[in-house]
TrEMBL record, chains A, B:
Pfam families: LacI (PF00356), Peripla_BP_3 (PF13377). Keywords: DNA-binding, Transcription, Transcription regulation. Residues 3-57 form the HTH lacI-type domain. The keyword Acyltransferase does not apply. The keyword Transcription applies. This is LacI family transcriptional regulator. It comes from Metabacillus rhizolycopersici. Transmembrane segments: none annotated. PANTHER family: HTH-TYPE TRANSCRIPTIONAL REGULATOR GALS, LACI-RELATED TRANSCRIPTIONAL REPRESSOR.
Length: 332, 332
DNA sequence: TTGAAAGCGCTACCAC
DNA sequence: GTGGTAGCGCTTTCAA
C-alpha cells in the first residue's frame, strides 16, 4: 500500500482536502500549514497517484509518440529532440514501438492528452476518437490529421543555389533514388529544378545513386565517384548517414574539404558538427522542427490555436566550413 | 466528453454494473444481454477508460522500459523483442528515453506494474518505492534490483573452442577493447582464457582492436587485418555491427566465407542470417533473453516466483554456415 | 484559512 | 441474472 493524501492528513492533523491544496501549492493554505504538510509528505515518502489525479482532472499531461522502426540517425535525433521539448513543457512522453494503429489505441485508453504519429510505415486505416488531438509527421498526406512536414525539395534546391553562388559549376548529388520514398524523390527533384534554373546540365555524372540510405551506401557511392578523372568541385548529399560514409571515402582518397571538394549535406542536425570534418548542411534544424511539432500539438490540446492541415517548414543552411569557392578560398 | 459505461447503460436500458460485467465478459450476464450491450458499446464508440480501471483495480497492465541512448543494432533488437513478449502477455509497454531516474519516477506516478531498466548509462542513485518491481539488464551489479545478464566471457570462450574443434589454430579476435565497457572486457577475457586453455598463443596478431563498435570500426580493422601476408584461418568478432563492416572488407578482398576464412560473430540475433553472408554467431538468442526478462518481471509482479539477484544466461552457438575446417570443408 | 462532500469512470461486492 | 452501492485517490466546489 502506498501512502495517500489521507495518510498525510492524518499525520499532520488536517483534512485531506487541505493536504491536496498544499500539495498543489495553493495560495489558500497558510504557509505554516503548507510547510508542515509538505514535510510530512516527504517523511512518509509520498508519491502522487497520477492515475487518480488524471481521473478527476481529465488531463494526463502526457503525450504519446507512435514510434517508427527507425534506424536513421536523423530520425532518432528528432525523437530525442521532441522528448526534450515535451519535458520542457512539463509533459511526459510515452513511446510505443507497436504498430501505429495499435499504439494510438493504447494511448487513447490511457487518456493521453495528445498523440504524435511519426513516420508511420503502415497506413492509418482507423479513425480514432475525434477528440484526441493527433499530429503527424512524415505520413502520407491523405490522412485526416494535421501534418507537419519539411520542404525537402527546397532544401536541395537551396543547396545548389548556394554552391552556385560560390562559383561552382560542377555539382554532384549523391542520394538514394527510391521509387517509394517521397522524401528522396523530392530531394532529387529539387536538385534538377535548381540545376536547370541556373543553366547547368544534369547528366549521369551529376547524379550518383546510392543503394540505400546507410553509411555504407554513401561510402560505396563516393568511392565510385572519386575514382573518376573529372571530379565535381562540389557535392550535395541526401542524408547524415550518407555523409558519414562519404567523408570516409574522401579521406581515403586524401582529399581535403573544402580545398579539393566542397560538401553540403541534407539533415540539419547538430551531429554534423561532430563529424571528422564538420559539414555545412541544409534542412530544417531539428530542434526547430521538434519545437514546432510539440508546440503545435500543445495548441491542438489546449485549443489555443487552430492548425492548418499541412504545414511545411522551410530549410536553412547551417554553415560549418565545408564549402568554399572552387578556387579553394573558404567561404563559410 | 467521451462515452462511459453509464451512457451504454442508459441506451441499453440496464444498470451500469451490468454493463461493466458484460464488457469484462463476465459469465454472470445473460448472453443476450451481453450481446446487446456489446453492440451498443460499439455503436457509441466506447473506449474503456484505463485510468479509471487502473484506479480501482490497482493494475495498469503496463510495464515501463527505461530506454537507453542506443545506437547498437543488437540492443534495439532486444527492445523490440521485449515489446513482443510484453504484448504476448497482454501487457502494454511504455518507453522512456529520459534519464533513468527520471523515467522510473514517471513510471511510478503512472503506477505501472513493473519496470525494466535497460543499459542505464548513469548510476541508479535513487531507491525507488520498494513495492515497485524493477528488473535490470546490463546495469552495474551493485544495484539492489535483480539483474538479468548474459555471459559474455563464455560466449567468446565457446567460439574459440568451437573453431578449435574444427581444426583452426590461427584464430583472431576483432573487438573493441574499451576500458570502461565491462561487456567488451569480458569478451576479450573469454578469448584469452580459451586460447590459453587450448595452448594457442595470444599475440598482437591475434587480437585486432577496433576504435569503437560501429560498422566502420569493423570495416577498418578488417581491412588492416586482411592486408597481412599471414592471414588467420578464422575470425571471431565482437558485435553484429562490427560484422557488417568486416564482411564488406572480406568482400573487397575477394575472400570467400568460409572457404578462405571462417567467421563467427558475437550477438545471437536473427539479422545475422540476413547479412550478405549469413554468419554463425554466438550469444544468448535475443528472443530467449527477451522472454526471460519479461517472464521474470511478470514473476516479480505477480510474486509467483522469487528471483535470484543475478541471473546470468548462457550463450548458444547458432550455425549459419560461415565456419568450416581450415581445409575448406564446410562444417556447419 | 480550513473542512466536508461530491464526483471523475470504473470494479466488486452484496442484495434481490 | 441483474441492480444498487461503496470506494479507489484525487480535485474542486461550497460552507463554515
Amino acid at each position: 500500500m502506498s501512502v495517500t493524501i489521507k495518510d498525510i492528513a492524518q499525520v499532520s492533523g488536517v483534512s485531506y482536502s487541505t493536504v491536496s491544496k498544499a500539495l498543489n501549492d495553493s495560495p489558500l493554505v497558510k504557509p505554516d500549514t503548507k510547510k508542515k504538510i509538505l514535510q510530512v509528505a516527504k517523511d512518509l515518502g509520498y508519491t502522487p497517484n497520477f492515475v487518480a489525479k488524471n481521473l478527476v482532472s481529465k488531463k494526463s499531461n502526457t503525450i504519446g509518440l507512435a514510434w517508427p522502426t527507425i534506424e536513421q540517425t536523423a530520425l532518432s535525433t528528432l525523437v530525442t529532440e521532441i522528448n526534450k521539448q515535451v519535458v520542457k513543457n512539463n509533459y511526459f512522453m510515452m513511446l510505443s514501438i507497436n504498430d501505429t494503429n495499435h499504439a494510438v489505441e493504447m494511448f487513447q485508453k490511457f487518456r493521453v492528452d495528445g498523440v504524435i504519429i511519426f513516420e508511420a510505415e503502415t497506413p492509418l486505416v482507423k479513425t480514432f476518437d475525434s477528440n484526441l488531438p493527433i499530429l503527424t509527421h512524415g505520413v502520407s498526406s491523405n490522412n485526416p490529421y494535421p501534418i507537419i512536414d519539411v520542404n525537402h525539395r527546397k532544401s536541395i534546391y537551396e543547396a545548389v543555389l548556394y554552391l552556385n553562388r560560390l562559383g561552382h559549376k560542377k555539382i554532384s548529388y549523391v542520394g538514394f533514388p527510391s521509387q517509394t520514398d517521397k522524401r528522396q524523390i523530392e530531394k532529387l527533384k529539387g536538385f534538377r529544378v535548381a540545376m536547370n534554373e541556373i543553366g547547368l546540365k544534369v547528366d549521369e555524372d551529376s547524379i550518383i545513386s546510392t543503394d540505400g540510405l546507410t553509411w555504407y551506401d554513401g561510402y560505396a557511392a563516393a568511392k565510385k565517384l572519386l575514382q573518376r578523372s573529372n571530379l565535381p568541385t562540389a557535392l550535395i548529399n541526401g542524408s547524415y548517414d550518407l555523409s558519414v560514409g562519404i567523408l570516409r571515402a574522401v579521406n581515403e582518397f586524401n582529399l581535403k574539404v573544402p580545398e579539393d571538394i566542397s560538401i553540403i549535406s541534407y539533415d540539419n542536425i547538430p551531429q554534423m558538427a561532430r563529424l571528422e570534418t564538420p559539414l555545412t548542411s541544409v534542412g530544417v534544424p531539428v530542434n526547430q522542427l521538434a519545437e514546432k511539432m510539440v508546440n503545435s500539438l500543445l495548441d491542438l490540446i489546449n485549443k489555443t490555436n487552430s492548425l492548418p492541415l499541412i504545414e511545411v517548414m522551410e530549410p536553412e543552411i547551417t554553415k560549418r566550413g565545408s564549402c568554399s569557392n572552387p578556387t579553394y578560398k573558404k567561404a563559410d
